[in-house]
Write a structure and sequence with these properties.
Elements (H helix, E strand, L loop, with lengths): L4 H4 L5 H14 L5 E2 L11 H12 L12 H15 L8 E4 L2 H12 L5 E6 L5 H7 L3 E6 L10 H5 L6 E7 L11 H13 L4 E5 L16 H4 L7 E6 L12 E4 L2 H14 L5 H13 L1 H22 L6 E3 L6 E5 L7 E2 L2 E2 L3 H12 L1 E2 L1 E2 L8 E5 L4 H16 L3
Parallel strand pairs: 1-13, 3-4, 3-5, 5-6, 6-7
Antiparallel strand pairs: 2-8, 7-8, 9-10, 10-15, 11-12, 14-15
Helix pairs in contact: 3-11, 4-11, 5-10, 12-14
Bound molecules: pyridoxal-5'-phosphate.
The site of pyridoxal-5'-phosphate (PLP) has 13 residues, from helix 5.
Amino acid sequence: MRLSSRTSKLKASPTLQLAARAKELSAQGHNVISLTVGEPDWPTYDCASRAGIEAIQNNITKYTPASGTVELRKTIAEKTKEDLGQDYALNEITVGPGNKFVIFQALQVLCEAGDEVIIQAPYWVSYPTMIELSGATPIIAEASAASNFMLKAKDFEKYVTHKTKAFLFCSPSNPTGLHYTEQDIKEFAEVFRKYPQIMILSDDIYNRLLLDGSRVAPHILHVAPDLKNRVVSFNGGSKAYSMTGWRIGWATGPQDIIQAMGDYQSQATGAPSSIAQHALVSALKKGESDIQKTIQLLVHRKNIFMSELYKIPKVHVYEPTGAFYIWMDVSSYLGKKYESAVIENDRQISQILLEKFFVGTVPGTESGMNGYLRLSFATDEKLLTVASQRMKDFFSQLS
Ligand SMILES: Cc1ncc(COP(=O)(O)O)c(C=O)c1O
């Protein structure tokens, strides 16, 4: 019994495991196309990379304040005003090594045993374990296909109890690439007003990668600024600025929570990388035209990928409005046979696709919903076409 009981619930991230298996097969010489990891395949923008190099050359390589440099927090304040329409003071902003870790910290400082945190299914694979590690219990509210896999406020309310501490969600969503409309969020605001103890944890990591022409995804602060004292918003460099490896993210929210997060971080990691912080200032100030080019690229790839996936009989693909994922319903193939083995769930589908057809996908079960695959199109368009053909080939062999 070396390991703590807290650790007994710990699961490694399934998407990272799948990506590792895809890499293993590639190393064995197979031509694997991985649609698994939620990571841009285009380089970090020049403006950010050059600032990173400048930081190293100019000795901007020392500890910074635990919550991030004043320069970066000022820049985040300006960006947040532009995107969410709200003013945040420097002590209402904290910077950490990635969006994931700032969400983790927020859960750590807010939750304890006995608390419940509501998330919707399909969910981002990391949410349940992060909630469990805070001591709280994840409560999973299933969103339906009819509501585009985004939970409706009236359905959310059915899961609220006196133990509900927070609602954690991302929009656009990982895994579906679909997002809440302004109307959806207004309905949520009505429900939130009825339950003042519930904190609203808004993961905005994809909120600038909109494929429907809008600049930024609808946000609770756009429609209900009166709830500002209960909202913590999370964002970062990883997706819109293609800075996954730099490990840099931030949170904005009420001063007491942000202060506690900064204190937690000061004991956990010290401070985020000074180099990554310097690079993010430049990305936030100068990266706008790069984001526009990224969106054009993503829309182009999405259109190609969708038109290929439409050719696969009896699957249903949901056209994404944001991020770089396609959510594909493969449930009509459950119960069919592949080489005499009955396909019982989407994990099997994903496994055969990887091991036999060399296409890496993430099963919906990892996001709490059996019968789906998440396909990332942050991949070269020619590969998307080949991957679609391989999937078509696989499904045609099921009987
Ligand atoms: C919904 C969601 N939140 C957070 C993250 C993590 O972002 P970061 O790389 O900044 O930790 C991801 C990455 O896959 C994500 O999909």
